[in-house]
TrEMBL record:
This is CGNR zinc finger domain-containing protein. It holds the Pfam family zf-CGNR. InterPro entries: ABATE, ABATE_dom_sf, Znf_CGNR. SUPFAM superfamilies: Jann2411-like (SSF160904). PANTHER family: BLL6575 PROTEIN (PTHR35525:SF3). Gene3D superfamilies: Jann2411-like domain. It comes from the Bacteria. Residues 138-181 form the Zinc finger CGNR domain.
Length: 186
C-alpha cells in the first residue's frame, strides 16, 4: 500500500491524538488545556490553524473519542460509518496545496476550518484510505495487557502486536523468557 507523505503525517497525528486520551481514571488527559492543544498543533505541524480556545479543546477531545472508536471498530463497515460521519461533519473540501516546502498534496479541510474540523477531515481521510484498501485491521491497539495505545501496523505481513517493540513488546518477551527459565529451574 502506497502511503504518501501527507497521509503518513495524518496517520501519525491521529494515532498521537487518540493516545492523548486517558486510558482510565488514573491516567491524566494528554490534552488537559488549550496550551497542550497548542503544543500538539505545533508539534504535528498542523497548518492553517488560528488562535485556539476552550471551544477548540472541547471539539478536539470529542473527535478524539470518535477516532478512538475507529481503532476499536470490529469491522470495516463500522469503521467506515464513523469515518463518514467525521468527514461529513467537518465539511470536507478537498484542495491541492504546496505549502511549507512540500510538493503538491491534498488538504481535505476547508480554508479557515477549526482545528477539530481540520483534524476530522485530514485524519479521517487518511483512515478512510486504509478502509478502502481493505487494510482496516492495520488500525490497532497494543496487545500488552497494561497498554491500550493505538498504532497503525505498517509491517509488511501485518504482524505488529505492540505500540512499541522496544517497550511493550520487549517487556512482555523478557517476562515470558523469565517465566520459562523459572519453570525449567523448577
Amino acid at each position: 500500500m502506497l502511503i504518501t507523505h501527507d497521509t503518513r503525517c495524518a496517520l501519525d497525528t491521529v494515532v498521537d491524538l487518540v493516545n492523548t486520551a486517558p486510558e482510565d481514571n488514573a491516567t491524566p488527559d494528554g490534552l488537559p488545556d488549550v496550551a497542550a492543544l497548542e503544543d500538539f498543533v505545533q508539534n504535528h505541524e498542523i497548518s492553517d490553524v488560528g488562535a485556539l480556545s476552550e471551544f477548540d479543546l472541547s471539539a478536539v477531545r470529542k473527535i478524539r473519542g470518535r477516532f478512538a472508536s475507529v481503532f476499536a471498530a470490529p469491522d470495516a463497515r463500522t469503521a467506515a460509518g464513523v469515518i463518514n460521519d467525521l468527514v461529513a461533519a467537518a465539511g470536507t473540501t478537498p484542495r491541492l496545496t504546496d505549502h511549507d516546502g512540500y510538493d503538491w498534496h491534498v488538504h481535505y479541510f476547508a480554508p479557515g476550518a477549526s482545528v477539530a474540523d481540520h483534524l476530522a477531515a485530514d485524519c479521517g481521510m487518511a483512515l478512510a484510505f486504509f478502509v478502502v484498501a481493505g487494510e482496516q485491521e492495520r488500525l490497532r491497539r497494543c496487545e500488552a495487557p497494561d497498554c491500550r495505545r493505538a498504532f497503525v501496523d505498517l509491517s509488511r505481513n501485518r504482524s505488529r502486536r505492540y505500540c512499541d517493540s522496544r517497550t511493550c513488546g520487549n517487556r512482555l518477551h523478557v517476562a515470558a523468557y523469565r517465566a520459562r527459565r523459572k519453570e525449567a529451574a523448577g
